[in-house]
Design goal:
Number of helices: 2
Oligomer: single chain
Order of helices and strands: HEEEHEEEEEEE
Strand order of the largest sheet: 1-2-3-4-5-8-9-10
Largest sheet: 8 strands, antiparallel, barrel
Mean pLDDT: 86
Radius of gyration: 17 Å
Strand content: 35-45%
Shape: globular
């Protein structure tokens, strides 16, 4: 019985530690973008915290959004990853949004690679697009 309690405690302690490996700021590799992955309830979410264009104009709006009713949203702080669960190395959730193209994906996948980089895959139907992010220092 003691081993069951100890094993349960170890599993519960490991879950936040695994999420801690993915939480933080990630460089997206395009336009100097940086996204912060953080806990949102029991899941993980990601929001835009920096980009070259945002440094020049912090009030930039989501003008490329395919939904014209959303084009007045500010890019800084915009949630681009939502509801990701899983771990310790792979998560799935969605939606995923790409403000560069103004399009999104209903579902996405995050995978922490052995080299410490993060693979982000967004999928619409059978079409998926993959990007590799690096941890910002």
């Amino acid at each position: 019985m003691r081993w069951l309690v100890a094993a349960s405690a170890a599993l519960l302690a490991a879950a936040p530690a695994a999420a801690a490996e993915i939480t933080g700021v990630w460089a997206t590799g395009s336009e100097g973008g940086r996204v912060e992955i953080y806990r949102c309830g029991q899941a993980l979410c990601g929001k835009i915290v920096d980009a070259v264009r945002l440094r020049a104009n912090p009030d930039l709006r989501d003008v490329r959004n395919s939904d014209s009713s959303l084009r007045q949203r500010r890019l800084k702080g915009l949630v681009v990853l939502n509801g990701f669960t899983g771990g310790p190395r792979e998560w799935q959730g969605g939606p995923v949004y790409d403000p560069e193209t103004g399009s999104g994906a209903g579902r996405g996948y995050l995978k922490l690679l052995p080299n410490g980089k993060l693979e982000l895959k967004g999928c619409v139907a059978f079409f998926c697009r993959t990007k590799i992010w690096t941890r910002a220092r």
